[in-house]
Every structure is written in structure tokens, then in C-alpha cells.
User: Fold Spore coat protein from Clostridium bovifaecis.
Amino acid sequence: MQERDMVNDVLAMTKAGMSDYTKAIGECSNQNLRQTLKQMRDGDEQFQFQLAQIAVQKNYYTPAQTANQQEMQQIKSQLMQG
Assistant:
């Protein structure tokens, strides 16, 4: 397996894990466990961000174009209405 494939697999697994943490947090009634899950999710989010930056530097991943201010405002408005 090539490094590029391994990096992309880890990025995908981390993204899925963050989604699972978020779902578990939403279902959790124990505040201590809820806080622990949030910390774990936040740690994975930081790791994913750092690994994604490396993937971009190595041309393993090409991010979407940056949205302009008008596009961001339009999306924000749509999300607030929905």
C-alpha cells in the first residue's frame, strides 16, 4: 500500500470516528462521559486537520476552492432557515 493510500484511509477513518463521537455525545446523559467523548472528538479533529495539511502539501489531497464572503453568507442564511 502506498503512503498516499494510507494517509487517505486514515483521514477517512478519522472523519468517520468524529461522526460516531458526535452521535454518541448526542445520546449521552452522563456528563462525565459526555465531556470525555467531546475531548476525544476534539483530539481527533485536531489530528485530522494536521494530517489533512500534510496530505495537501504532498499533493495527496486537493481541497475544495475557498468560498467567497457572499457564498458563505448565503450558506449561513440557508442553514439558519432550515
Q: What stands out?
A: The chain is about 80% helix and 0% strand.
